[in-house]
Amino acid sequence: MKQTQMRWRLPAVCALWQLLMIILFGVFVRYDEEADAHWPQTRVSHNISSDIENDFYFRYPSFQDVHVMIFVGFGFLMTFLRKYGFGSVGFNFLISAFGIQWALLMQGWFHSLDPTDGKIKIGVESLINADFCVASALISFGAVLGKVSPVQLMIMTLFEMTLYAVDEYILLNVLGARDAGGSMVIHVFGAYFGLAVTRVLYRPRLEQSNNTSNYHSDLFAMIGTLFLWMFWPSFNSAISHHGDGQHRGAINTYCALAASVVTSIGLSSLLEKKGKINMVHVQNATLAGGVALGTAAEMMLSTYGALIVGFIASTVSTLGFIFLTPLLERYLKVQDTCGVHNLHGMPGIIGGIVGAITAAAATEEVYSAEGLRASFSNRDRMPSVQGGFQGAALCVSLAIGLVGGTIVGFILKLPLWGDPADENCFDDEVYWEVPEEPEPSHSIIISEVPKNSTINGTQAIEHPPTL
Amino acid sequence: MKQTQMRWRLPAVCALWQLLMIILFGVFVRYDEEADAHWPQTRVSHNISSDIENDFYFRYPSFQDVHVMIFVGFGFLMTFLRKYGFGSVGFNFLISAFGIQWALLMQGWFHSLDPTDGKIKIGVESLINADFCVASALISFGAVLGKVSPVQLMIMTLFEMTLYAVDEYILLNVLGARDAGGSMVIHVFGAYFGLAVTRVLYRPRLEQSNNTSNYHSDLFAMIGTLFLWMFWPSFNSAISHHGDGQHRGAINTYCALAASVVTSIGLSSLLEKKGKINMVHVQNATLAGGVALGTAAEMMLSTYGALIVGFIASTVSTLGFIFLTPLLERYLKVQDTCGVHNLHGMPGIIGGIVGAITAAAATEEVYSAEGLRASFSNRDRMPSVQGGFQGAALCVSLAIGLVGGTIVGFILKLPLWGDPADENCFDDEVYWEVPEEPEPSHSIIISEVPKNSTINGTQAIEHPPTL
Amino acid sequence: MKQTQMRWRLPAVCALWQLLMIILFGVFVRYDEEADAHWPQTRVSHNISSDIENDFYFRYPSFQDVHVMIFVGFGFLMTFLRKYGFGSVGFNFLISAFGIQWALLMQGWFHSLDPTDGKIKIGVESLINADFCVASALISFGAVLGKVSPVQLMIMTLFEMTLYAVDEYILLNVLGARDAGGSMVIHVFGAYFGLAVTRVLYRPRLEQSNNTSNYHSDLFAMIGTLFLWMFWPSFNSAISHHGDGQHRGAINTYCALAASVVTSIGLSSLLEKKGKINMVHVQNATLAGGVALGTAAEMMLSTYGALIVGFIASTVSTLGFIFLTPLLERYLKVQDTCGVHNLHGMPGIIGGIVGAITAAAATEEVYSAEGLRASFSNRDRMPSVQGGFQGAALCVSLAIGLVGGTIVGFILKLPLWGDPADENCFDDEVYWEVPEEPEPSHSIIISEVPKNSTINGTQAIEHPPTL
């Protein structure tokens, strides 16, 4: 018998963690100069003509779009499971809110520590980066969805955020790679981390009967899909350079995503039974173009380049859902609930490669001399060298994800965290108060019923219809 | 027997189309100067003081609002059908993603072709215009919802986008009309195009039993309604002039929409059985004020003018749903699933007329001399002449919609495209893999039941399960 | 027998009101100078270098976020009731659209009347303030949800908007308090107003069987929760000072809300049966941090201060839902359907206190000399004096809410407005046309089934209910 009681474990983790955050924020976190009340003076001393040049106005609309992707996009995308809607939206909410606090600290220590006073200076860009950091944990959540306890999720998030900051530091600061929309840092890292975790947590006798959708749960999931899809141009351009960088990032992503929809729906119809379209592909593979542009969106990829990337990524993603996922489970014992390998893993790798190629192909003619330096980390590298570093960054991210996920998987395997029994997976009843459905007509007690319908009646009581 | 298999037809159209798009984008589409990496130089040469003056920051928040209207707004608005949620959201997704690519090209050739190099230069305004263009196809989709195959929808979209670009060129460039929120170009054109198509595709023996909503499908539809309603101020101001034009467009639309809600709910209660409010009116007629301000929102209509327009448009719209739609079906054989004639057709015509009157009534006193020229196409026309051209534009849009829709209707009538049989309309089963509901208890037939369960049975009838 | 027919009452109120609004807007409302067509001249005369400095671009993205909170956030938050979804979303829609028009006038007369011509000048900030004003009515709506008629709601809104403008005038103009996110003006006022109304309308024999959620209604409610949660940083910063004020307001709210989620989910698990998490707390208490930062968000509270406020507010809120709500109903006869006392009342009071303390603790060192004046109403008060006025403002808002709500409650008690009978509360059937569910198989209790009813059973199998 599994002990899934959360009464002491979950509150203890939440309380300790929140108090620790308060203390660490008190010691370390301060407003950056554009969010500080001294800003009017700073403006004058920096010769900035108007408040509208505060970074807030460059990035806040994109930040809010990213915020919607994290909380509604990822949250509702996972509600496709017919009995796990509370867990999908609710645990997504919990670990995101938990994670963004830790991300502000970790990313602050690595990226925005002010050397003059040892404080982390945060502004709107920090909020976007914290949301990005949490996105990787939500991707990993997708791989283990329905099979872990909230305490396991919080521990996973804690370690994953930490590793994310390290990975990001290596990629951006040490290797000087560009990855504004996070193909490598967010998607590859998050997906392979999650896949490694779910591999370690393999359940050979996993009960799959609740690992299904129903009509309305599929519609709820479309809310998630559409908000992810619509706001992905903001995601990929949110932290790009002001002006043409953000502008181009949005245009490229818009194009790639359009191609992904047409491609994945076409492929779904081609390969599914009777030519009917499968909602799993509509919900997921349509997004592959956004993932695959995470590195190159801000570059001079050109719009037809973006269409090609969207086309390839969604093709790979759809084929992955149809052919690869069953093989991964059978042969590699990877039980990937949401198919994150198809939506984030492979498209993320494509994104890293596309970024490397695009960087290597950069010319002064296309970018202008100063544009070239500005676009690629101000390091005066030859484009081909930059392309090599981009490729190295992809490999580093993949390796850190796999190794980190494996280690964390073993930590999560300790019998301390209240994970559900095999037969209770994908069911909200374990961790949530689920309202009883007041439907007296559904579970009729029958005293004399002909023999052959008894089975039917028993089933009715065991499996009340999910509405 | 209808042959509704999509296996070869849908994938073939998707694949061919997507490859064609890649080629055409490669040949024709480039970034405009504000999205290009040469922007820092351009900025200096154009004497622009800051990156914040990049058009991206003027229009991107509005673009994202429009984007949400297209994909979530239109998509979920149509989920009111209880068995057609996948088709509503999914086909909306497919044809929008398909259409925006073609719209970028068509509108580019007509409006933003750079004469120096023969390339289409795109920026954030192009993305908004592509979304606008697709909106007209989604309006037409509403007229034929549930009665056509995805291949028919893609063919309809292809032709409609093409005609849209022609219509838009005639209205804006030839006639010099203003139509920033598209009362004429989007709503009148899209609605009458769709109505003509559904007239040609008339099904005398259409099975209507699935052409109904249920409790939760009506709630899903409210998601669509509300996102359309909330973001309509962005829609009507997205491509207006910087500064006061956008500002005024948002204010006017906000006011008109508020009046529409109060008016249509009041009228619904007045005219429906027992004074109860009908969700159809709440979902649709509340939006009529936004449609009817599509032309005049950016003009100096004044806020009370906006309230009057919202009041009239939603009155006409609600009355249309109650009285006109049944007559249209009975006498004109127009089967208008979503009532687009009431939401887009008539309010669009009102919008065109309001625009003409407002333009004709413009004075230098109200607009200032330079404001008057800037507001109306810089053509040095007398306001009354401008009003006349606006009226002509309305007629042109109506005519192109009706004629184009009729022709396209006959193309869609060819027995090649896999349309559903009369008895399978409004049912996702035809084109979608629909999850089976695991509810064995729903269909029990009991032969002998004891007395004491009768109470239970009575309750069951009094409290039917809410779904 | 209650007479709940709305046929004449609701249409009459809507029509009269809308016509009155048209007249009053015609007499009083004009565009402010940044939305007026004379803006290009104004820009030159005010020495403004670019259209991007139009207030529209500072505030419009935040306005749209606030707009989503009002219509989708509040609307869907209340759909948790399984049979009151239409009423929740629909009445929310009606009274908001009705209220924003009146708010533009009332707030205009008090705050933006141009003394030179006696006209109200509106711009984007006016739209935000109108939405804010309506938020207080929606909070009160939460207290009486399911127990009143739409006519009662409109009358309540009318009086409450009026009082809101008076309260706001006293707080901001007379007392010189700061309350940019409305802890006092919106939340305390709205909550205690609503609680007083529901106290006066106490129903000793209220039928509670429909005052429950089901699985999908809880998921719909999460749409509301998440949009409120995500966009609260925009709410608390929407009308703050340009630049650092808005920037800081968003950062502080972001932090406080993150702490609230972790805290309330932890507490829910600690205190609920078997350690399971309760969706009521996830839907509501997670938002308490946003409410409690309504006054101090724009101040130099520091991020750890924001975390502490979020932690305390959500603790109080969750404890309130578990322990206080039942006591309020039993001993004070306050039937608070949505628990607004827990989400808006107590956290709002905390917000007022936090604002007073933060204002009193302000120093020139932290704010700079000019920052201090600018942040606190330009009145040259000592910080401690300002703190005192903040505290007085809180008391005034509480008092006006309680007294006003009591008076309005007695008005609503007049037997004229068509309120529902005790046994019909929380049920859409009273005021809405609810679609019949086509589910012949759901409520069958058959003692001896004759041969011909087999057809019924067959139908049941042919048309399984769509959920």
From TrEMBL, chains A, B, C:
Molecular functions per Gene Ontology: ammonium channel activity
Entry's Gene Ontology BP terms: ammonium homeostasis
Domain Ammonium transporter AmtB-like stretches: 54-429
UniProt keyword terms in alphabetical order: Ammonia transport, Cell membrane, Glycoprotein, Membrane, Transmembrane, Transmembrane helix, Transport
InterPro entries (UniProt xref): Ammonium/urea_transptr, NH4_transpt_AmtB-like_dom, RhesusRHD
Transmembrane segments: 12-31, 66-82, 89-110, 184-202, 214-231, 251-271, 304-328, 348-367, 388-412
GO cellular component, one term: plasma membrane
Subcellular location: Cell membrane
Record bears the keyword Transmembrane helix: yes
Membrane topology qualifier: Multi-pass membrane protein
Chief location of this protein within or outside the cell: membrane
Subunit structure: Homotrimer.
Similarity comment: Belongs to the ammonium transporter (TC 2.A.49) family. Rh subfamily.
Name the record gives this protein: Ammonium transporter Rh type C
